[in-house]
Amino acid sequence: MTNSRKRLPFLLLLLPFSFSLLVLFIAYCSAKALTIYSPNDEFDIPTTINHIPVTFELDTGATYVTIPKTLAQKLNLKPNGEMQTYLANNSPVTVQTVTIPEIDVGNCKLFLVQAQETSDDFAPLFGFSGISRLDIHLHDNEADLSCPDYEQ
Amino acid sequence: MTTRSRTAALLSLLALACCAETPAPAPALRAGSSFSATYAGDSFILPATINSVPETFIVDTGATFTSLPERDLKKLHLTANGGTALATIADGSFQEMTFLTIPELKIGNCTLYNVTAEASSQNMALFGLSGFDHLTMTVHGNQMSFNCDQQ
Questions:
Q1: Do A129 and A65 form a contact (C-beta atoms < 8 A)?
Q2: How is domain A33-151 classified at the CATH fold level?
Q3: According to the model, what pLDDT value does residue B151 have?
Q4: Under a CB-based contact definition with an 8 Å cutoff, are residues A92 and A86 in contact?
Q5: Which of B43, B142, B58 is nearest to A132 (CA)?
Q6: A129 and A114 in contact (C-beta within 8 Å)?
Q7: B70 with B84: CB under 8 angstroms?
Q8: Please, what is the end-to-end C-alpha distance for chain A in angstroms?
Q9: Closest Cα to residue B110, out of B147, B67, B55?
């Protein structure tokens, strides 16, 4: 009992330290949106748009987020213009532009993301218009996505 | 043990558990073993050298392999003498590609060895995921930087 009393001030000193660590951990967890892996030579990002799950491929080579036409209709996204873009093989293609009101990536909400509507032959790509709204740390076959301060 | 000390002990344990979940820090790096890609309006550009010849890459995590334009192979002193395979491009169509190995790819102060690549009919060289071994990429806004691990 006496020993316990002697230890008490020391343990009380530890309390603020432990609390600080807990706060730091909570901050870390809330800042980190999600971790994705690349088992098949691509990084797939699970998201939701209008409560519908959409999986994008992380693509730093794509200028915009792209959504295939049928999926865009399912997501109730309306085209608001058109533009010319180029495929990887340099062939030009005209695409519709859309603005996605909200993409949820883990606990991160990206509002008003510029995107391109493509033909259904294309996969959904998470291009630079979405990438620039996240912090990404990629190492080996793992990528951590988190929300920058200005997106929280 | 008092309630307070028990609480403190629990918090300490929790804090320790938290630390255990924190990702391990990146491996120690040599001075100057990092480089940045330049954002060029619609893509990230990486200046590199292969066999002392400059080559500019677009950073492309959507590409499984690093690729080089066929027309550049001669000036880079490379030959596409690997196997061939069919690759799917963004629009779902197929394109035949021939593999090659880049013995040394220098970017900034980092040297990547034996990078698997493909020769393509495209005009631009792509820095795809086959080049990402031993690299850590960080993207923040329109800034992209790389650290190279010790090899």
A1: yes
A2: Cathepsin D, subunit A; domain 1 (2.40.70)
A3: 53
A4: yes
A5: B142
A6: yes
A7: no
A8: 49
A9: B147
Angle, to 10 degrees, between the axis of helix B3-21 and the axis of helix A2-31? 40
Domain borders along chain A are: 33-151
Task: Supply the pLDDT for residue B47.
Answer: 96
- In angstroms, rounded to a whole number, what is the distance separating the alpha carbons of residues A43 and A141? 8
The pTM of the full predicted model, rounded to 2 decimals, is: 0.76
Can you give the three-state secondary structure of B74-130, one letter per residue? CCCCCCCCCCEEEEECCCCCEEEEEEEEEEEEEECCEEEEEEEEEEECCCCEEECHH
pLDDT in tens, A35-81: 998 877 889 999 999 999 999 999 999 999 999 999 999 999 999 98
What the block records as the tokens of B34 is 């990092």
Q: Across the interface, which of A12, A15, A59 has its CB nearest the CB of B61?
A: A59
**Burial category of A107 from C-beta neighbours within 10 Å (exposed 0-12, middle 13-18, buried 19 and up):** middle
Residues 6+ apart with CB under 8 A from A66: A95, A115, A116, A117, A118, A122, A124, A125, A127
CATH number of B29-148: 2.40.70.10
Question: pLDDT tens digit string along A116-133?
Answer: 998 888 899 999 999 999
pLDDT at A20 over 70: no
- A-chain residues within 8 Å CB-CB of B139? 60, 131-132, 134-136, 138
Taking contacts as CB-CB distances below 8 angstroms, the residues of chain A near B129 are 38, 41-42
- The average pLDDT across A21-39 equals 67
Q: Is the ipTM of this complex over 0.95?
A: no
Q: Measured between CA atoms, how close is A76 to chain B, in angstroms?
A: 22
Q: Say yes or no for a CB contact (<8 Å) between B91 and A87.
A: yes
CB of B151 within 8 Å of a chain A CB? The answer is no
Extract the tokens encoding A30.
Answer: 């809330």
